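ok so for the tutorial part 2 we go from a plain amino acid sequence to predicted structure tokens. step 1 is just haveing the sequence, like this:
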Amino acid sequence: MKLTFYIVFNTRPGQDVFVNINDDIHIMNYDGDGKWDLTIEDNDGCYNEIRYSYLVREGYDTMYETGPARHSIIGKAELVEFHDQWQGLDDNAPFLTAPFTDLFTHHTESCLKYGKYAKEIILRVTAPNTYTDEQLYVCGNSQQLGYWNPDKALKMNFVGGARWEAQLKYEPSFEYKFIRKSKDSVEWESGENRVFEVSCRQTKCVYLKEHCTSSFAERHPRIAGTAIPVFSLRSHFGYGIGDFSNIKLLVDWAVKTGQKIIQLLPINDTTSTKTWTDSYPYSGISIMALHPLYLNLTGIGLPKDLKVRTRFEELRKKLNELPQIDYERVLQFKTEYTKIIFEETGAEVCKSADFQQFFKSNKEWLLPYAAFSYLRDKFGTADFNSWGEWDTYDEQAVEKLWKAKSSGNILKYHCFIQYYLDKQLKEARNYAHSKGVAIKGDIPIGITPHSVEAWKEPYYFNMDSQAGAPPDYFSEDGQNWGFPTYNWERMAQDGYLWWKKRFTKMAEYFDAYRIDHVLGFFRIWEIPQGYKSGKMGHLAPALPYSKDELLSRGMNLDLFLEDPHKPGYYHPRIDARGKGGHDMDMLYDDFFFHRHNEFWKTEAKKKLPALIAATNMLTCAEDLGMIPDCVPGVLSDLKVLTLEIQRMPKDPSAGLGNPNYFPYMCVCTTGSHDTSTLRGWWGETHNGEECSTDTCKWIVSEHLHSPAMLTIIPWQDWTSIDENIRAKDTTKERINNPANPHHYWQYRMHIDLEILNKKSDAFNAKVKDMISSSGR
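step 2 — the prediction. this is what the tokens look like for a chain of 776 residues:
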């Protein structure tokens, strides 16, 4: 069997085109005029079924196609020629991601087997936003294609990733168009007829001709959804905190009200001190491990002792009656419960084939995490610098811990918990998918300095620096998150493998994701160790001024901070504007808003494309704060959805944003976990006045009617539209206050999800009508 791949891509000197076939990457041959090809002889049948895509490399930089890989089953074919087109980042790119191809416009994949005819043609087209009740056909001026009669057109097979294929006997020349048919309509492509004209002298061959775009009328689907953290979910059978099984109940409510996406906060393990300070979901001790608090206890079994079961049930009811989360009591409760279940069933579970497969697939991160958790508890701290001989990660020593009877049993306990968490979250995801609902996750920009990754892979981080944010809408003093900054130069050396693994793991659970603080991929606000205030930070990477240049321009060095990594070079202090005269203000504005635009643009385009291409999730950015001019253009080029919040307009001269003018390529929302709720904001800006249900409904409706692709409303703001459903005390509804670095994240829904689903018909009908009338 011989496979030949052809593609046209106009490279510049230093670039090469590759084809990735079943994760084997092959460099292609350049034939001139932008034409590249590769021939593979497959005598062993290794490539009977292939998934493939193209990429372009230049040094460390790699350019990827958008969307999932192509899927082909070679079948009986002896010679196949793939004449493909580059699947680029055009306006259809978001519609090639998982929420659209797998859920919103889902079709059952049915790949063709090539070689049905001795000499055959495969026509392939990418046609995103083809509705579930629609079918693609190819119609043309030959008998096989129905002589332009749509009733006799050739039916195409959906082959995944918004791609369709048709199989026909070889004809040397014909004209054709693709058509979309539903029960009541036929839609033809616009423009000139497509032409196939190939002289094939082979007696047995398959000639595949690909079209990376179709010419149907553009569609701009608009989706509504809700945002709420897992920990905030409340169920009648809960344990004082939301868990992964509660997502199913939230999905039921989404379906009842016409919503198609659910947005969550980070779900990784944050267990560091075992106190309420661990409630901060952006301070994970692992980028891979899920939080044990989100485990549904019933789902892992009941204690054998009836008295123990009774005691747990009584405590469960007490914790579940609380208006807010008691983090420490819930953690103690779940830890005690899971240890009993592990003692009773752990040995059997850990021997099961399912567990063994989970362990094998995740061992690279799972074993270090289990060891970290064991050592954290042994030494009473997550600060591995206090662990003596264990302060530096040692793979062989961790293997010994695993094999030792006493420590190994504790490590298995932590793996046991992760196994069930993984199982329960995937069950919730699968349930959501069965209902046509997508799950959107949140990927924090940082890691904590006392985490598995900082212990195991410190070379990826600048451990002497802290990430944060300059003074902004959220905090007058700026923010110091305490996270080490990234050593991007080191990360680039292995093609950002650390990030790719992280995104790939998250793609097991999510269909879309929010990149927390996307500005960190352009530059980060870096605060040297030893400082608390965000005002003491500087931009990194940056182009600071030399001391001589500043003195020659008559600048006061007291208004600058020396670069900790480059002595003799200085950054303007973030609070320097207005303190040094006109020349200082001009320098300040140039430094923070203009000087770095091309530099930061280059930095972001080194990193983001590889990470976006690592999965088929829809990429959404949190692009709030002090936004450099280069950011909107880069996000637009990469087809990343921006974030639009009315009270935080991108135009600094505007008091409020107007949802009617939000871009299509965005996530539109009334607020976030870092802002007050809609009712809270109204009170803050109207002298404590309560926001009426009619006003709340009007504001939410304005957002639903916006052009935004996704309008995702915080759950608290949905409930604000109904007098019988809204919380009595809105001051308890705020999730986080960024101005307080020690905020206790303990918000819980004020009503059970069961009541929301079964006893709130009037409210649910109101939400559904608002969404439907907005065209979503």
